[in-house]
Amino acid sequence: MRPHVFVNLAMSADGKLSTKERRQVRISGDADFRRVDLIKSQCDAIMVGIGTVLADDPSLTVKDALLKKKRADGGRDENPVRIVIDSGARTPVSADILHKGPGTRIIAVSGSANPEKTAVLSEYAEIAVFGDERVDLSNFLEYLGTLGIQSLMVEGGGTLIWSLFAEGLVDELFTCIGNVVIGGRDAPTPADGEGYINEADFPSLVLKDAERIDEGILLHWIVKKTDDDQ
Ligand SMILES: NC(=O)C1=CN([C@@H]2O[C@H](COP(=O)(O)OP(=O)(O)OC[C@H]3O[C@@H](n4cnc5c(N)ncnc54)[C@H](OP(=O)(O)O)[C@@H]3O)[C@@H](O)[C@H]2O)C=CC1
Ligand SMILES: Nc1nc(O)c(N)c(N[C@@H]2O[C@H](COP(=O)(O)O)[C@@H](O)[C@H]2O)n1
């Protein structure tokens, strides 16, 4: 069974994840960063797309010492399993995610990845091959389930989030809307990719909670699986 999947993102008041040159920018405030650290510390694994690794070079580590200790006291690694979705094994060998903090890393590649690149990356991370050209997300998530991963946090970016929605693989969405306007028709948004054409295909969400946070707002959405979901 695949893990429970929740997406967490921060977007500007005009719905952008970063600038048009895809430069990492601070959208949410300190309280939201603490909240993100908490939910990260509670999940089994955290996942991003290669676009986010190349743009932001995130470590995806738990930052707060007490949260790290709590995980260790519960017999878990200090950090959740860190995962990159990277069909072509483009993850730089110097990427922070491969070096900062202890814990397991998995790079999911496709069958088209260059074997020499995957061999180098396998010194730092487990390599999982799913799909021919692009990573087959559905089967990869099933594989994560066999590893005992029950909760999976997705930190972006918009291309990966789109694919997860398109394949019906998202259960919850946390959207922090920060008090800035970024603009730019080419700036990334929470669900890029191809986009839906037919309204019947739009995933429906139930608003579970809305609260003020920092100078913005945090929305917690549940993805409706059936028409009966409230
Ligand atoms: N504000 C926020 O909360 C966040 C903002 N960001 C921002 O988002 C931007 C990065 O997002 P984006 O460029 O969309 O990149 P993503 O991180 O979404 O990575 C997308 C890449 O993942 C690879 N991939 C492999 N298989 C799949 C699949 N089945 N479906 C989708 N993607 C797949 C593809 O590359 P390949 O074919 O080579 O494998 C694809 O181009 C940056 O600007 C970053 O700053 C990112 C995270 C959070
Ligand atoms: N919650 C949140 N608010 C913002 O303003 C952001 N720019 C992001 N970005 C995400 O945080 C990741 C950084 O991770 P590390 O601190 O390096 O562990 C980055 O890659 C985005 O996913 N998030």
TrEMBL record:
Domain Bacterial bifunctional deaminase-reductase C-terminal span(s) in chain numbering: 3-219
Keywords for this protein: NADP, Oxidoreductase, Riboflavin biosynthesis
Entries under InterPro entries matching the protein: DHFR-like_dom_sf, Rib_reduct_arc, RibD_C, RibDG_C, Riboflavin_Biosynth_HTPR
Gene Ontology biological process terms, A to Z: riboflavin biosynthetic process
Reaction catalysed by this enzyme: 2,5-diamino-6-(1-D-ribitylamino)pyrimidin-4(3H)-one 5'-phosphate + NADP(+) = 2,5-diamino-6-(1-D-ribosylamino)pyrimidin-4(3H)-one 5'-phosphate + NADPH + H(+); 2,5-diamino-6-(1-D-ribitylamino)pyrimidin-4(3H)-one 5'-phosphate + NAD(+) = 2,5-diamino-6-(1-D-ribosylamino)pyrimidin-4(3H)-one 5'-phosphate + NADH + H(+)
EC code(s) of this entry: 1.1.1.302
Pathway the protein contributes to: Cofactor biosynthesis; riboflavin biosynthesis
Any GO molecular function: NADP binding
Gene3D superfamilies named among the record's database cross-references: Dihydrofolate Reductase, subunit A
Residues annotated as signal peptide: none
PANTHER family xrefs: 2,5-DIAMINO-6-RIBOSYLAMINO-4(3H)-PYRIMIDINONE 5'-PHOSPHATE REDUCTASE, DIHYDROFOLATE REDUCTASE FAMILY PROTEIN (AFU_ORTHOLOGUE AFUA_8G06820)
UniProt record similarity statement: Belongs to the HTP reductase family.
NCBIfam families in the record: rib_reduct_arch, ribD_Cterm
Subunit structure of this chain's protein: Homodimer.
Name recorded for this polypeptide: 2,5-diamino-6-(ribosylamino)-4(3H)-pyrimidinone 5'-phosphate reductase
Annotated organism of origin: Methanogenium marinum
Lineage: Archaea, Methanobacteriati, Methanobacteriota, Stenosarchaea group, Methanomicrobia
